[in-house]
Amino acid sequence: MRGGDIKSESLFSYVSCEARVPPDHPLRPIRSIVDEALEVLSPEFAALYSPIGRPSIPPEKLLRALLLQVFYSVRSERQLMEQLDYNLMFRWFVGLSMDAPIWDVTVFTKNRDRLLAGDLAAKFMAAVLQQPRVKALLSQDHFSVDGTLIEAWASMKSFKPKDDGQGGGDADGGGQAKAAGRNAERDFRGEKRGNDTHVSTTDPDARLYKKAQGQAAKLCHMGHLLMENRQGLIVDAVLTHATGTAEREAALTMLERLQGRHRITLGADKAYDVADFIAKLREINVTPHVARNTANRRSAIDGRTTRHPGYAVSLRIRKRIEEAFGWMKTCGGIRKARHCGKERVGWTFTLTAAACNLVRLPKLLAAA
Fold first, then answer.
1. What digits encode the pLDDT tens for the residues 318-356?
2. Does the domain formed by 139-152+219-367 have CATH 3.60.15.10?
3. Do 115 and 59 form a contact (C-beta atoms < 8 A)?
4. How do the domains of the chain map onto residue ranges?
């Protein structure tokens, strides 16, 4: 017998969001790891809020919601609030009941900015990695480093001469008359532009840069990751201005933040084969397993390093860091920044790196 297309609503519902999520759902082990890390960060959260006044969005719920935005490639916080309104799985992960009201997107954004002051993204990543079951997976001796470009949320039309203010005046850097309007046409032919003379009015922290010959220069930031070589987990992340020396400077910064001062190895690509950088690595007790760059020059890596079997192993494993960059750009949504300013983009970059670890940890813990 065919059933009728009849809509019936119950007056009361006794089914919780917990019951709607399958027991074997991939988010369940991730939720347990996240909750353990957030419990460790509770004193950090308390220091950011006043003991009196109206209660704000709980920082634990705020961070869980931002992680969902990364996991499911939600394009904006406005769409995230829309998903939280009707997606029961999202409500369960964040910690909202079925009938709990959803926050206004402007209130959510304002509370998210509060977390920038405490650098909670980096502390959250560290809290996850310091869990005993996770720390047992990590290598303490072998690491790899690399950097990538993150396109800034700014157009080339916003890249204007520094002495031009907000673009006022009768002529631009090329001597051409400026057209009025919100998105006026502009001809860049014959105009010389550089970071020393021009700045983006949309994102002043963005830099015009390209990593290889033949590529187009874009306004971008540069993100850097430090990966341990045993499981390929990210142990540190930092975002800098896009410059020719940023990769090596960021590598030294992340190495200095590592715990312990025993001898370790560092795998890297040819961009790190610079004599000054190799010398600094040896000074801080780091063996440079850097790919040799012998294109019309002499490599700083000699037979003292390449003769060891571990050198070839490091060069092979270091390529796994590209998998992390690939996931963060395609799923995590950092191919093009959603925010302006080095501080906000860097915070998002670090949180996305932590989310990349969380996606991989359940399987690694199950196999351990």
1. 999 999 999 999 999 999 999 999 999 999 999 999 999
2. no
3. yes
4. 17-118, 139-152+219-367, 159-201
